Amino acid sequence: MPSPKPQRKPGPTTPGPDSADKKLDELLISSAICNNEDLAPFVRKTFGTGKPETLLHHLKLFARSKESEIEEVCKAHYQDFIHAVDDLKSLLSDVESLKSALSDSNSKLQSVAVPLLTSLDSLVEAGTVSKNVDLAVGAVTHCLRVMEIVARTNRHLQGGSFYMALKCVDLIESEFLEEIPSSALRRMVEKRIPEIRGYVKRRVSKELGDWLVEIRVVCRNLGQLAIGEASAARQREEELRIKQREAEEQSRVSLRDCVYALNEEEGEDVDGEGSDDGFDLTPLYRAYHIHQTLSLEDGFKQYYFDNRELQLKSDSQVSSMTPFLESHQTFFAQIAGFFIVEDRVLRTGGGLISKREVEFLWDLAVTNMCAVLEDQFSRMQTANHLLLIKDYVSLLGVSLRRYGYTVDALLEVLSKHRDKYHELLLSDCRKQMAEALSTDKFEQMLMKREYEYSMNVLSFQLQTSDIVPAFPYIAPFSTTVPDCCRIVRSFIEDSVSFMSHGGQLDFYDVVKKYLDRLLGEVLDEALLKLISTSVHVVSQAMQVAANMAVFERACDFFFRHAAQLSGVPLRMAERGRRHFPLTKSQNAAEETLSGLLKKKIDGFMILIENVNWISEDVPQSGNEYMNEVIIYLETLVSTAQQILPAKVLKRVLHDVLAHISERIVGTLCGDLVKRLSMAAIKGLDVDIQLLDSFTEQLTSLLSDKEAIEMKTAFVEIRQMINLLLSSHPEKFVNPVIRERSYHALDDRKVVTVSEKFRDPSDSIFGTFGARGSRQNPKNKSFDTLIKRLKAVS
User: Fold this and answer.
1) Which residues neighbour 754 within 8 Å (Cβ) at sequence distance 6 or greater?
2) Regarding beta strands 446-447 and 473-474, do their DSSP bridges make them parallel or antiparallel, or are they unpaired?
3) Distance CA 22, CA 14 (A)
4) Which of 251, 397, 443, 540 could form an SS bridge with 535, CB 3.0 to 4.6 Å?
5) CA-CA distance, 560 to 70, in Å (whole number)?
6) Which of 621, 627, 624 is nearest to 610 (CA)?
7) Rounded distance, CA 232 to CA 28, Å?
8) Which residues, in sequence order, are bridge partners of residue 446?
């Protein structure tokens, strides 16, 4: 190994002008090189100044300073290397022996591991196969689950379980579709899912369409059933009111005879759901549920509402081919059933239809029904038709009010046609009464059975006694009375039926107003017409007068009946009672009877012409005419007492007796009588006494006071006779005496009769045979009376 070169010593330097700076740089460079610092700044600076010699010089010096160190290190490492090589050479034999041992071990290992490697390869291959089989089994299992759900879906579709089918489809789509390993199966399932949904939608839509068709028939039947139940409930209420009225009647007779009974009624469904169990909403709710499942809920709601609105508009149209009277029940029942169904759908449909939508449909139906009622009522000319429709509409209102629907608008339409209904009803009653009166034979009604008596007398409270008569029974009235009473009662019931259940609670005043019109206009005018055109003989007039007395009792019953049906206490109804509404016809009947009796009396009074007014003989038994009149009056009274009330007979008799008095006075004042003798006046006195006796014999008819009042009917002729028989007739002019004894006499009549009554011996011809004789004082008194009365007149 060559020896290292000796280090060269640096030569001496000669200091210059920049020697200090240069020396400093050299120190810095030398220090940086010795300290192994970064020389980059010095390199840049050196090359920047273009004088790298200093840096190179120092680097070379540094390299020479390290050469000895390098040589020493190399020597040390070379010795170690020589020693290592010697060691390796000594280990070479050991390595060879180890190599042969390893080779033998390797051969043995390979001989043993070959079968194991073969088994391992088989194991790895079996693991791979097992893994592939597991994957295949998992795929097949997944497909089997999908196919199982598909099969279940098919079964649900075949069985009509569309909701479960859709749930299976949703399950396949959400959990199995993306993981189906078979692409063919996946494509098939992806294709079938929308087809199944479309099929289900079509099926439920068809079922819904069928249901919408069937529900119209169901609605009609349902409405008829609901209205029928309302009618039955109303009938039960009416029966309860009848029982209450009977109890009130019994309590009026005797509080001790009141009958108390429990009212047993069938339980009613207060919620109004007892009548709507006969319809099935399953197809509707099924379709709604399916559309909810298909996320088509809003569209289905609108579809249902639009279809029901169209159905309602169709149901609200009236067919022009069928009279409304025949179709009104079907018309209103259809609408009632429609809203009963909608109420159920609103309450149980889970939001299928809203309350606002139902109210919209109801307002539409009410508007259409009001328009139909207005149109049909304006055309109707029969009260019964109007009542039938009104009753059915009111039942419709009762039925639907139970479901919360407001029916005020319908009731207002009914109330608006109240006057027209009553005018038509009055017109019908006018025709019925005219027919009833035209068939009257003016004969007392014969009743052979008790039911006839109950139907014609008791039902109108026409009886005068609570004792049931023996049969056959002859009533004091003719068949006209119960016939007219039935017409009036029917009018009252029809009027109350129209006014009741119409929203107005207190309607008695309205019923009473029209009842007054019926009695005061229709019945009164019909009776006046009957009296003026058909009554020609006394028996007819007497029967009509008897009928009028019975009508007076019947009118009391009419107003009580109207009050009872209107729910007004009888005491209030009796408190507001008015005068007898048939006063005109009653007066006309009595006047006609009086007029016919006067004509009959005039036939007997013709015999007064046979009286010898200058006779000297007094007829002890009265004149012939008076005897005939008395016989007729007695016959008349015996007949009239059977049918005429006492007060009517008294009025008629008073009128007839006054007419007899007027006829006698008229005869005395007339041209038929030229002169009057005392015997003739005394004969008239006997005639008047016969009249007095006749009135006194009416003890069963007249009281003492009434008998005295009856005698005032012929007070004029009585006072005239008293004046003529008086010894001082001139006292007639005395106001006190005249007011007390002669207040009924007329001055002119007194003068006329007095001139005829003076003694003929005092006449101008009588003085020839009795010259110088004294004048009769009574004649003188009459002369004085005549002069004074003539002077006054």
Assistant:
1) 724, 729, 782, 785, 786
2) antiparallel
3) 12
4) 540
5) 155
6) 624
7) 132
8) 474
Are the CB atoms for 738 and 788 separated by under 8 Å?
no
For the stretch 92-149, pLDDT in tens is 878 888 888 888 888 888 888 888 888 888 899 898 998 889 888 887 887 888 788 8
**Closest alpha carbon to 445 in 483, 416, 409:** 483
pLDDT one-digit tens code per residue, 482-520: 999 999 999 988 888 888 766 566 778 888 888 888 888
Unique residue bearing structure tokens 């007839």: 656
| Radius of gyration (C-alpha) of the chain in whole angstroms | 69
For residue 278, what are its two tokens?
A: 């006969």
What are residue 447's DSSP bridge partners? 473
For the chain, residues with pLDDT lower than 70 are 1-22, 245-246, 248-278, 501-505, 572-578, 758-776, 778, 793
What size, in residues, is the chain? 793
- C-alpha 784, offset from chain centre: 89
Q: How far apart, in whole angstroms, are the C-alpha atoms of residue 207 and residue 477?
A: 71
34 within 8 A of 62, measured Cβ to Cβ: yes
Is residue 320 packed enough to be buried (19+ CB in 10 Å), middle (13-18) or exposed (0-12)?
exposed
Token output for 126: 């079996």
| Contact between 512 and 539 (Cβ < 8 Å) | no
Token pair listed for 184: 């063919």
pLDDT of residue 361: 93
Cross-strand bridge partners of residue 473: 447
- Residue linked to tokens 């309350």: 355
CA angle 55, 60, 63 (to 5 degrees): 125
